[in-house]
Please model this.
Amino acid sequence: MQTQKQRTSTKVWLLAGIISTAIVIAILSMPEILEPLAKYIVRSMGPYWLLAVLIVGVIHGLKPDEHTWPITVSYGLMQRSIKGVVAAVSVFAGALTLVWTLMSALVGELMGLLNTSILDPYVDIIVGLTMIGVAAYLVFGRHGNNHNIKTADYKLIWIHGLAAAFGGDFFIVLILTIAIAPMITTRLSFLVGFMFGFGSWVAQTIIVLAIYKGIVKSVGDWSVVADAGRIALGMLGLFMIGLGIYSFFIPSD
Model:
């Protein structure tokens, strides 16, 4: 007969597999509507460009994205409380927003930046390797008889955010900035990246909180959910690496 420990371990791996599979399916099945929708909103709202960018940012946060959901959901599930979930998402989204704000400010000064989409495969692989490394540390990093459940270090989440900011969404912010820059003063161009990041942060927080509450309530044991979150982080890291490698073989348009 299986011991309680074995049953719990099986439950953890099963839950981690379900979480990872659900996120991967969501990412792969979601049509690429963000870029044309972003252009349409910006073009339609004209002088209300600040609100337009905020809306596009919210859409970004709601859309299953390989540079947000695998990281924010996994880290969110490791937190002991709703406050911890909000903090984890905020640290990650804050790193994204910082990079995007600086980038949009720079584009306001230099309109000749190159197409950064060529960075996507490299970013996917780097982020994936980081996810696997963090997951391995959190799963196997216990010492002696101390079995306290580990939550992710906010410094690690911050580093993840900085790396993920250079993915495909960096290119979206670049497009928005180039489209809006002629309509505004150079000193205001930083608001494009900032409002996009702020909108994304709001939406990501809502999504991760909903997933966190739903899973914790259905499972009933936070330690199982936290363990599953760590393992899911590693599984999704493998997915990110595979996605990055696959991107090298996709012919550019």
Observations:
- The chain has a mean pLDDT of 78.
- The CA atoms of residues 77 and 212 lie 6 Å apart.
- The two ends are 57 Å apart (CA to CA).
- The chain has one domain: 4-248.
